[in-house]
From TrEMBL:
Keywords: Signal
Pfam family, one: Peripla_BP_4
Organism: Streptomyces pristinaespiralis (strain ATCC 25486 / DSM 40338 / CBS 914.69 / JCM 4507 / KCC S-0507 / NBRC 13074 / NRRL 2958 / 5647)
Protein known as: Sugar ABC transporter substrate-binding protein
Domain of life: Bacteria
Gene Ontology CC terms, in alphabetical order: cell envelope
Length: 337
């Protein structure tokens, strides 16, 4: 894997263009002619939220790629992780504004499909970033981490780190209906080598990927099963919430916490020993590839298709035999947020 998956970002001017009850829309970019209104070609970006550092960095990547391609970027985000209605409104607004393509990280992998089908029926190229839809072919293409692999890597790591000790596992998951959460969870169990029904899984809680909810979930799990010694988390905010709950009980040195994302805050937490290992993914790459695909579609009419793996790397300073990994120095060179 290349040592630097970053896309250099520069500041671009952002102008407000449309507002909906649940969304903040913005436009940026300059250059190419060709939009339905005779102006610049428009590309839409719809993220789950506009506060998570992962999606902030994704938007930066899209802004830079749009500027380089001479496109106008229109962006939107749900008010919270799981806000499907907000994303539906954003799709409708973007189609009405004449976008050539829409890039989306779906909040609900199934519920968003009808809105995407309507957009595609009107000739809009639709690309999923980070999270696939259900079914996956509800979009023209997908640029994302292999989330099963991301989960599998931290599962393999946790299994090796336990060195034969009996595990009592807590899984701090995302939310029902979100493919990325299901895939990471299933990948972790595969990597650890246990089925969903295994008695070693003593607690499972949804967190929405939120730090405060992660802390509450961990507190609930410790009440249910005080002997927990392995914690899988959907992302690093949930992991840091879990760490806070563990530290309050004096258990932070006794429980192995693993996660997914590879943001700068999370990677620093690995370096500090709060998280044992994380699977790093690359949102800038997802966004830049998506914008380029829309630019190419606008130029020659050829639609991107299929799945493109944007890469994942296990980051830890406590490497385990048989599990490929890079240290936090590498992680900090390639992190985001």
């Amino acid at each position: 894997m290349p040592r630097n998956n970053r896309v250099l970002t520069t500041s671009v001017r952002v102008a407000a263009c449309t507002a909906a009850a649940t969304l903040a829309l913005a436009a940026c970019g300059s250059g190419a002619q060709g939009g339905s209104d005779g102006g610049r070609v428009k590309v839409g970006l719809i993220t789950k939220t506009d506060t998570n550092p992962f999606f902030v960095k994704m938007k930066e990547g899209a802004e830079q790629a749009a500027k380089e391609s001479g496109l106008e970027l229109v962006s939107a985000a749900g008010k919270f992780d799981g806000d499907n209605a907000g994303q539906v409104t954003a799709i409708e607004n973007m189609v009405n504004s004449g976008v050539k393509g829409i890039l989306i990280t779906p909040n609900d992998s199934k519920a968003i499909v009808p809105a995407l089908e309507k957009a595609r029926a009107k000739g809009v190229l639709v690309i999923a970033l980070d999270s696939p839809t259900d079914p996956q072919d509800a979009t023209d293409a997908l640029y994302a981490t292999d989330n099963v692999k991301a989960g599998e890597l931290i599962g393999q790591y946790a299994k090796a780190a336990m060195a034969g000790r009996k595990a009592q596992i807590a899984t701090l998951d995302l939310a029902p209906g979100v493919a990325v959460g299901v895939q990471r969870h299933e990948g972790f169990l595969k990597g650890f080598g246990v089925p969903e029904t295994d008695p070693s899984i003593v607690c499972s809680q949804d967190t929405g990927g939120d730090q405060a909810k992660g802390q509450t979930a961990m507190e609930n799990c410790l009440q249910k099963a005080p002997g927990i010694n392995v914690v899988y988390t959907i992302n690093e905010p949930a992991a840091l919430g879990a760490y806070t709950a563990l530290k309050a009980k004096g258990l932070e040195k006794k429980v192995l916490v693993v996660s997914v994302d590879g943001g700068c805050t999370g990677t620093k937490a690995v370096k500090e020993g709060k998280i044992a290992a994380t699977s790093q993914q690359y949102p800038l790459k997802m966004a830049s590839l998506g914008v380029k695909a829309v630019a190419d579609f606008a130029e020659d009419g050829k639609k991107a298709s299929g799945y493109t793996d944007t890469g994942v790397t296990l980051i830890t300073d406590r490497a385990q035999t048989g599990v490929d990994a890079e240290d936090t120095a590498y992680g900090l060179e390639n992190c985001w947020g």
